[in-house]
Amino acid sequence: MKIAVAMSGGVDSSAAAALLKEQGHELVGFTMQLWNQRRGISVDENGEPLPSRCCSLDDVYDARRVAEELGFPFYVLNLEQEFERDVVQPFVASYLNGETPIPCVACNSRLKFASLDKLAASLGCEKVATGHYARVEFDAATNRYRLLRGCDPRKDQSYFLWELTQDQLSRALFPLGEMSKPEARDAARRNDLAVAEKRESQEICFVPDGDYAGFIDRYLAAEAQTDRLPGAGEIVNPKGTVIGAHAGIHHYTIGQRRGIGIADAQPLYVIGIDANRNRIMVGKEEELLGDEFMAAGVNWIALDDESEAVQADVRVRYRHTAAPATITPLSDARACVKFDEPQRAITPGQATVFYRGDEVIGGGWIVK
Asked: Which residues contact 84 (CB under 8 A, 6 or more apart)?
């Protein structure tokens, strides 16, 4: 087949390309230039660009080098405007609304797959391959494509792909789905790729130091929108009694313990964020437990739009162990999710993903 390969410059996408090349496919490599690290926002205290291991200019160079080593054409797509509009700006707005967003989901489905899908089709490519640890299979009985967990539970990335449509899944190819990370590195070493020992990225690409609040401060300053910053406000206990002050709600997330700045006989955690009143609520760890929430933007992968309640195992963040729940579909692509047992730190802005065994049957966005 002729296959378009999304290349980040890292080990995983490079190994995916190497495996497909070994199988005899005709490849065309694409790297997406998403965020300008020298823009003056993702910088340190001295104004120097923060080191990034994803989507930086060095990564573009590494991706090009891998394509040259494997002998296939390579192109760079400048999607900086689309990335800022569809990923960065919603990320900032979500934090200012008292949520904790996960931008990698929107980046995968609404930007990377959507853009590559169109370009791949125009070049006559039958599939779009990425380095995700996930699997896709066609089920002839239901005439649907199934999204499955990666075989290595430590690297499974199906959580980030729940927004993919049946049309996108029909062209998606995940060569690493059956593999572990060491096996992927071995594939890169076997093909003498320069990136074989490269460290993997852990942080959000445009916030490489993990300081989300600092990024938001700098971004709004660069956009002359500092009036959007929430500023100082009150910290209250569950009874509403003011017990402290905060410097801005975007510095906090549900479940946070460190950095609250209030001493108590027992550890205190952030248990609520009220953007309308610019308040942070703190409480004991047991007060983080909840058994019900609403999901919006629900995408059913394994099913048609549902009207009946569905039993599934549900994750409420990437590192959360899926727990049994009942999902009741509502109008406007919404659903009510009720766990059999309370779960810790259900956080607005995060993605929730519904599983049956290894299969992703759907997902949505946690809302208040």
From this structure: 35
